[in-house]
Amino acid sequence: MPLTRTPPLHLLRTLCEVGRRGSYREAARSLHITPSAVSHQMRDLQQRLGVTLVERSPGGTRLTPMGEHYRQACETALTALDEATAQTQSQAHRKLLRITLGPFIASEVVIPALPDFHRHHPDLDIRVETSMRLADLEADEADIALRFGGAETAALALEPLLSMSAQPVCAPSLRQGLPPGGELPLGRTTLLHSTAVPDAWSAWATQAGIDTDALGSGIWFDSYLSLLRAAEQGLGVALGLFPAVEGWLLSGRLCLAADTSLPIQPRYNMLYRRQDANWPALQAFREWLRALPAFR
């Protein structure tokens, strides 16, 4: 009768040990069973397959060419199965989720909502690194990275989260005296720059059809949150990242200073190791993050 099912795994493991050891006795010692049990299992396997897998030799027992071919295939399959089993067990017991992201998105979007995630997953430890440094996921420095850009690789998965745009914002006090809908004269206004994106204002001016030489003087910040705080205090005009800064406008801390909006490339993405794709903690955080209003 033709074979319709793969033989039991213990028979395949016995075949691999016989091929590796070249002896029923040595295979039995490795498998912690008796030589007669090895002989019985090999006979059972050959009957199931309908082929001869082993033959006697002067030095003991060796596999036939068909047996050796089958052993190699079984070794590959069993190794993959063992690795998958170990990974699944390891992920099931991992209780620390490490997330790295920039300080501004952390403070304005993720951290304010994080108590909700923790409430639904109280047994999970969470480590949040707020830094502009790009953590090396492949070197296991973090489990999830939220950042602009990034690259999908054989080891890393990338999921787009959000398309952002930049638009000038300022303190409401700077707009005093302007008619409704009027724009600030940026040539006579201090511009607030981010050292992380030094050409942002030039790109915005090009989008708005403004000569970059007509832009006003500037002050530079290495922290985007500090840059927005400076704008809130009336120090100058900043490029607000929308929709992340919408809360600042709704609260009245900032207002629009000009109508032109500059689409930001690349998009804001989530990256993680492909081998962790089925890790329950990562799946839970990914689903929770996508449900946040900022990322819908």
From TrEMBL:
<dbReference type="Pfam" id="PF03466">
    <property type="entry name" value="LysR_substrate"/>
</dbReference>
<feature type="domain" description="HTH lysR-type">
    <location>
        <begin position="7"/>
        <end position="64"/>
    </location>
</feature>
<keyword id="KW-0238">DNA-binding</keyword>
<keyword id="KW-0805">Transcription regulation</keyword>
<dbReference type="InterPro" id="IPR036388">
    <property type="entry name" value="WH-like_DNA-bd_sf"/>
</dbReference>
<keyword id="KW-0804">Transcription</keyword>
<dbReference type="Pfam" id="PF00126">
    <property type="entry name" value="HTH_1"/>
</dbReference>
<dbReference type="InterPro" id="IPR000847">
    <property type="entry name" value="LysR_HTH_N"/>
</dbReference>
<protein>
    <recommendedName>
        <fullName>HTH lysR-type domain-containing protein</fullName>
    </recommendedName>
</protein>
<dbReference type="GO" id="GO:0043565">
    <property type="term" value="F:sequence-specific DNA binding"/>
</dbReference>
<dbReference type="InterPro" id="IPR058163">
    <property type="entry name" value="LysR-type_TF_proteobact-type"/>
</dbReference>
<dbReference type="GO" id="GO:0006351">
    <property type="term" value="P:DNA-templated transcription"/>
</dbReference>
<dbReference type="InterPro" id="IPR005119">
    <property type="entry name" value="LysR_subst-bd"/>
</dbReference>
<dbReference type="GO" id="GO:0003700">
    <property type="term" value="F:DNA-binding transcription factor activity"/>
</dbReference>
<dbReference type="InterPro" id="IPR036390">
    <property type="entry name" value="WH_DNA-bd_sf"/>
</dbReference>
<comment type="similarity">
    <text>Belongs to the LysR transcriptional regulatory family.</text>
</comment>
